[in-house]
Amino acid sequence: MTSVYDISADKLIEKLKEELKKIETVKPPLWAQMVKSGPHRERPPQQTDFWYIRAASILRRIYIDGPVGVSRLRTYYGGRKRRGRRPAKTYKAGGAIIRKILQQLEAAGLVKKEKKGRVLTPQGRKFVDKIIGELTSSPP
Asked: Which residues in the chain come in under a pLDDT of 70?
């Protein structure tokens, strides 16, 4: 059977994004189009479906990394901030977007909270595995 490691991340995230758009509980809030994704960014995301891309990416990260919390995801999505003449510095991403997406994925039944962080539910693992199966069966 094909695993999440055998498929390129961009193809998996693209397909997950399309499937997440069909779920009612996963929707961007009104403030999502006006906020930056972290202090290391200069502008808010320009993609119209940024929320779904980030939700798909978070779902993939939870599938790979197991129990994961908001702080660890903030580190993963963080980046380098340009500070003019001063040397660049690494910053964590903002936590509000990540936290809200995790809450929506919990409401959809794909993710659940445990003591050490959030993990995929059996339904969430089945959801991702089904998409992996579709990607491997379709021609490249």
From this structure: 1, 138-140
Output the six-digit token pair for 101: 């997406």
Query: What token pair was written down for 18?
Result: 């399309």
3-state secondary structure labels for all residues of the chain? CCCCCCCCHHHHHHHHHHHHCCCCCCCCCHHHHCCCCCCCCCCCCCCCCHHHHHHHHHHHHHHHHCCECHHHHHHHHCEEEEECCEEEEEECCCHHHHHHHHHHHHHHCCEEEECCEEEECHHHHHHHHHHHHHHHHCCC
The pLDDT tens digits for 6-45 are 888 899 999 999 999 998 999 988 888 888 888 888 888 8
Predicted model pTM: 0.89
What is each CA distance from 108 to 16, 22, 89, 111, 123, in whole angstroms? 14, 11, 36, 8, 10
